[in-house]
Each structure stands twice: as C-alpha cells, then as structure tokens.
Amino acid sequence: MTTKPGPGRPPVHHETWSKVSVVLFDRQILHLDRLASEIRGKSGKLLNRAEIIRALIDGLIDSGMDITGTGSEADLRARVARRLGSPFR
Fold first, then answer.
1. Any idea what DSSP says for residue 4?
2. CA-based nearest residue to 59, from 83, 39, 33
3. Which residues are CB-contacts of 4 (< 8 A; sequence separation ≥ 6)?
4. CA distances from 3 to 6, 12 (A)
5. What is the DSSP string of 9-67?
6. pLDDT score, position 89
7. Distance between CA 83 and CA 89 in Å, rounded?
8. What DSSP element (H or E) covers 83?
9. What is the pLDDT of residues 14-61, one digit of tens each?
10. Above 90 in pLDDT, residue 8?
11. So what's the pLDDT on residue 86?
12. Mean pLDDT of 3-15
C-alpha cells in the first residue's frame, strides 16, 4: 500500500536539523536574493537563501580553516575573504 504525500512542502533535509533565527543586514539579504536569481538564470537551478547560507557554512567547515583565533566578526570576515582571494582586508 502506498501512502499519499501530506500537505505542504516535502522534506528536503537528509540529516537532523534545527530551525534558528539569525540577524542579517539588509545588504546581505539583497545579495543573497541577487545571487539566487543569478544562479537560477545561469543554471536553471533553484537555490534559496537557506541553501546558500548552509553551503557557505559547510564550505568553511570543509576547508579546515582554523578560525579559533578570531577576535571579532570583522576579523573573521577578513580572514575568510583573504582565504578566498578577495582584496578585502
């Protein structure tokens, strides 16, 4: 016997997860939305804000970059930007 899917979005996570709230700046939201739109335009694939943010976090984790000596948000931003080859100091 097959079961009929329930209402709402189908589950898309393949591991345990928690819903969290974070504060982002308006410029960051605008950039995420533009990025999602550009990705859709170039590849036809849909990526939402949460997927982009999760991918960025996992990329940082997978890089093995040691950020334990970071003293501030600005310092972390500069370290990550340098690691990615950005001129941001």
1. P
2. 83
3. none
4. 9, 18
5. PPP--SS----------HHHHHHHHHHHHHHHHHH-----HHHHHHHHHHHHHHHT---
6. 57
7. 11
8. helix 73-83
9. 899 999 999 999 999 999 999 999 999 999 999 999 999 999 999 999
10. no
11. 78
12. 71
CB-hemisphere CA count at 13 Å for 67?
A: 19
Q: In this predicted structure, what is the pLDDT of residue 36?
A: 97
Q: CB neighbours of 53 closer than 8 A, spacing ≥ 6?
A: 32
Token pair in block for residue 12: 């898309």
| Tokens read off for 26 | 């308006």
HSE of 41, CA atoms in CB hemisphere, 13 A? 6
The continuous run of DSSP H or E covering 79 comes out as: helix 73-83
CA distance 42 to 18: 31
